[in-house]
Specification:
Elements (H helix, E strand, L loop, with lengths): L7 H29 L9 H4 L3 E8 L7 E3 H9 L11 E8 L3 E5 L2 E14 L8 E15 L2 E13 L2 H5 L3
Parallel strand pairs: 1-7
Antiparallel strand pairs: 1-2, 3-5, 4-5, 5-6, 6-7
Organism: Edaphobacter modestus
InterPro entries: NTF2-like_dom_sf (IPR032710), SnoaL-like (IPR037401)
Pfam families: SnoaL_4 (PF13577)
Length: about 170
Amino acid sequence: MRSEEVSSADVANMMQGLLDRQAIQDIISCYSLGQDSHQGEDSAILQQWEETFSETGTVDYSAAGGTVGSYRDLAKWMRGDENTKGSMSRFSNWQHMLSLPLVSIAGDTAHARTDFFATHRGRADQGWNVHYNATGAFHDDLVRTPEGWRIQFRRLEVYFGDPLEIAKTA
């Protein structure tokens, strides 16, 4: 058996690839952390999302009847503002579970696809005592910034579940 020599530059490149992949996984998880850490009336999801998306990050959540625009538009669609209720206002609790992402990296850009399972409990106090599940995938285009990897664009794909139940606002 012949052993191949690996240069220190090759090892450094392989290590950087692994570090990039781990950083991208962490950023993708940070999105769900922002969503799931702020239940019910707590709408402070931007605390995590400011570190998840690039400054100009955009989303396409039209597959769930949602917004196409900035990640701040997505936060407003989900959580509402002082004048309107968001799509999540009909739910008391939720959790988003993620698969490991499939990641391809090309220099300072990357693409990731992450499957998810999301479960939501309706607000019984509002006469909507349901348990809603959905599955799908996040398709993310990421960029390396001075602060680290950030999502530049996210597209939601729904496999099953009634996405219009999420889109309805109270």
